[in-house]
Amino acid sequence: MEPSKHLTTLIAFVLFVSLSTVSLATNAAEVKQKLRVNITRDLPSITVMDHGKPVVIERNQDPDHTVTAEYAKTSRDCPPFCIQPMQLLPGVHTIGELELIQFLKKKAEGDKTIEIIDSRTPDWYRNGTIPSAVNIPWTQIYRGASTYEPLVVESLLTDKFNAKVSDGIWDFRGAKTLVLFCNGAWCGQSPTNIKELVSMGYPADKIYWYRGGMQSWSNLGLTTIQPPQ
Fold this sequence. Notes:
The protein contains seven helices and nine strands. By secondary structure, the chain is α/β, with parallel strands linked by helices.
């Protein structure tokens, strides 16, 4: 009887290990399946804060997912929707998704010298934006816009961008690094903001332009959010 008990215990232990191995393998397969579309080989996702809540930025994991209709158009009237140059202004940095993600990551880690700016009008912003971006419409900064107010822009530059002004003379030495985007390479909203800022004296080398904008971001299946109303 005693050997039989040992044999039964051994068989039970082997079955337990086998089932555990299968369970672990299944879980590993599920994780691998979930993360099969990474941002880069070594970066599956990042987490940022948006309106006080954590948001995970990752790529859509559905291999059959397609770009949304609003960013599927290939042709728009030009003007005004003309293809923008790769080099917008001397000194301004043109960047892609990975560089933008690094800025988002730095900001999420507490770097307060960075501001990510969605330059589109509020209707576009509310429809969906890049997590943690703030909406500063091009119509707010552009001096030719009917909504332009010098005192509002001055407040924006000092309170939001950390610039200083004394007797009408601007000091941008401690100003933030700005990363601007709009709808895509055919969109003139962020270029308008950038040109206005540089014309005011904002250092071009403190400005980064994500030329691909929401169209490229969406085409890569990256996370977007709808800001609270």
